[in-house]
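1st attempt posting a full record on here, be nice pls
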Amino acid sequence: MPSHLIRALGERTRLPFVDETTVDAFLAPAAGEAGNAILFFTGDPTQRPEADDVAVVLPEVLHAFRGKLRGAVVLRAAEDKLKARFHVVVMPSLVVTR
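the predicted structure (as tokens):
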């Protein structure tokens, strides 16, 4: 279960949550959207409480690069399926794509 701060990313900042079936659609920018994207792999927040730190900073990063960078949170259930694809070894991780 995601922590309160990670859930708030979707509720307050409207960051989408993606999984292995929706990540490609997210990564393909719509007309007028930034081509660069950042994926937040949270890991288990009970084992990795620093995920909450990233959850606090990520909206600030996205705000600083507004119009140049889009963000999404990878659902916990999809992390194992997507880690190899995006070369994620340590969590929490931020993966920047272009």
